[in-house]
Amino acid sequence: MRRLLWLLPALFACSHGRAAGDDAPTPGEAGIDAATPALPLEVHALGVQGYVLRRGDDVVMTAPMFTRQSALEVSLNLPLAPDDAAVDAGLATEPLDKLSAIVAGHAHYDHFIDVAHILTIAPRATAYANLTGSHILAALAPDRAATCTSPPSPTVIPRQRMIAMDDPLASHVDYTNCPSQAPPGAPLTGTWLDVPGAHVRLMAFCSMHPPQIGPYHFGQGSIDADQCDLPAAASGWLEGQTLAFLIDFLDDAGRVAMRVYYQDAPTNPPLGHVPAAILAEAPVDLAILCVGNYDAVANQPGDVVANLQPRFAVSGHWEDFFQPLTSPLQPIPLLNLDAYKAKADAALPGSPDAPLVVDGAPMDVRQIVTIPGSRLEVPAAP
User: Fold this and answer.
1) Cα–Cα distance between 286 and 296 in angstroms, integer?
2) DSSP string, 49-72
């Protein structure tokens, strides 16, 4: 039992639009490869796999985790409530009035438990995740099912503020690399989804979440019906369809000014990879990668970096999040973080085309493992 508790942090790996192939803009057709304003992308690492991405007035967040529970409490399946006060404190300096999108690749609690409260303090934001996440947040909808007998939550999230990218009736997921994952009625090619009120568009890609300890897969499966209440314990936050994302920041003419790739679980290729035809539209400026249980898949991060060929990469979800937020940072037990860093260095060798700025200091590297609280500036391509 003690060994299981020690390994529990590895249980959670970070483990209307245009059809991608048919009528997506091609280089030259919509000016997608034309010169764009040299506005950088500001990145604030929130910890675990949460990042605030800002270009000008456009702000996107990848789902953070501020709620904490000890390994013992998780193993005993004890009740777990979102820590709203910790969320408020962790996001106190963020431009929540400008936040338009919260992106999550799966619905494990370490990626999704704090999303509902963030929606209440970010009035313009919409969450973009999977159907399981949508069914979970339906517990907070003002029109909960009439069959629900529990008292409604004081937190109310209108249904339109949660978009399931893998809804087969309105899919924005590209299943080119994994056609067997496509639900009946969903097209194989992805579609771009424009984020309302922002110069941002999103597309999701079928991905995977590996088992966390040997063959043991915590939180596997999907939630297939609207819930009356949020999950009571960590084990109730099932992952659903795991997704990776492209997040495009657009200029005023609708051209790609900065392209970000985001994953919150390491993958075996070609799952989680982006088809060549979509990458040909615009290069990836920043890849946000997951450390997590990277050694549970074939070649992380080498394979995904080879697929994306990003200008820069940052990696998160390496810290032991079963510790209180006030505890000193330490890696997930038994995680060989130095080995991951060496692999990441080998995957992105050479000097950058312009300096990556980390906490005000220009860096002559193309990838870093981020420390919670760090602020980065990704330069526009020369």
Assistant:
1) 24
2) TEEEEEETTEEEEE--------HH
Number of alpha carbons in the 13 Å side-chain half-sphere of residue 292: 27
Coil vs helix vs strand at 194: strand
CATH topology assigned to domain 2-340 = Metallo-beta-lactamase; Chain A (3.60.15)
Q: Are 261 and 288 in contact (CB under 8 A)?
A: yes
The beta-carbon contacts of 149-158 under 8 Å, at least 24 apart in sequence, are 149/228, 150/228, 150/229, 153/229, 153/230, 155/116, 155/117, 155/120, 157/116, 157/119, 157/120
**246 alpha-carbon distance from chain centroid:** 10
Q: What is the pLDDT of residue 112?
A: 97
How confident is the model over 328-357, as pLDDT tens digits? 999 998 889 999 999 999 999 999 999 999
258 three-class SS: strand
Between the CA of residue 171 and those of 17, 204, 253, 352, what are the distances in Å? 10, 9, 26, 36
Classify 351 as helix, strand or coil: coil
Whole-number pLDDT of residue 168 = 94
| Alpha-carbon separation of residue 146 from 136, 140, 151, 187, 231 (angstroms) | 16, 13, 12, 33, 19
Instruction: Give every CB contact of residue 254 below 8 A, 6+ residues apart in sequence.
Output: 30, 31
Both tokens assigned to 332: 């997930």
For residue 200, the model assigns a pLDDT of 98
Q: Which two tokens stand for residue 198?
A: 């922002």
Q: In whole angstroms, what separates CA 101 from the centre of its chain?
A: 11
Does an H or E element contain 286, and which? strand 286-290
Query: What was the pLDDT predicted at 1?
Result: 39
Total residues belonging to the chain: 382
Rounded to two decimals, what is the model's pTM? 0.91
Instruction: Please give the order of strands across the beta sheet that includes 99-103.
Output: 162-164, 126-129, 99-103, 58-62, 50-55, 41-47, 375-378, 356-358, 361-363
The overall longest dimension of the chain from CA atoms, in Å, is 60
- Whole-angstrom Cα distance, residue 66 to residue 94? 14
Distance CA 66, CA 149 (A): 30
3-state secondary structure of 361: strand
Intervals of the chain under pLDDT 70: 1-37
